[in-house]
Design goal:
Blueprint: H1 3-29, E1 45-54, H2 59-66, E2 70-80, E3 86-89, E4 101-104, H3 109-144
Antiparallel strand pairs: 1-2, 3-4
Helix pairs in contact: 1-3
């Protein structure tokens, strides 16, 4: 596998973690949203990762010669939580039902914060891998001088 293939693998990981982080931030921002355009409270969303062959213009020549394609990651779908909303008794709330209960999203900000830290660390790991690959490419060029 060429160094350029490895860079495209890390880039795909960075893109997937960025999308996951955006969804987690959206979840935390809407943890108290009781009314959406679709009706009802906000529904938690999460990214599902899937392996994906990475083809870049630089690595296609190497892939033809070696017969190996790099496998990266992509977000295959965004899953919407379909659990029943959490009911809280708040009779004065504008979205209260006739019985006084309000439907809130089933979101745990603490859990989403931990997941966000995990996505951030995954992104950082891919940045570190790209940096190491870049250093290897520079050292290879220096050796060929």
């Amino acid at each position: 596998m060429s160094l350029f293939n490895l860079m495209s693998v890390s880039a795909s990981g960075m893109g997937a973690q960025r999308q996951r982080a955006a969804l987690l931030v959206e979840n935390m921002a809407n943890s108290e949203t009781t009314r959406t355009r679709e009706g009802g409270p906000y529904r938690r969303r999460d990214a599902v990762f899937e392996s994906d062959e990475q083809i870049s213009p630089f690595s296609s020549v190497f892939a033809e010669q070696t017969g190996q394609l790099a496998t990266g990651v992509t977000v295959s779908e965004v899953v919407v939580d379909d659990r029943e909303p959490e009911l809280r008794y708040m009779p004065g709330h504008p979205d209260a039902r006739p019985d006084g209960y309000v439907a809130f999203p089933r979101i745990s900000p603490a859990e989403d914060m931990v997941d966000l830290m995990n996505a951030s660390r995954g992104y950082q790991a891919n940045v570190a891998a790209m940096s190491a690959i870049k250093d290897m490419i520079h050292r290879s060029i220096d050796l060929l001088r």
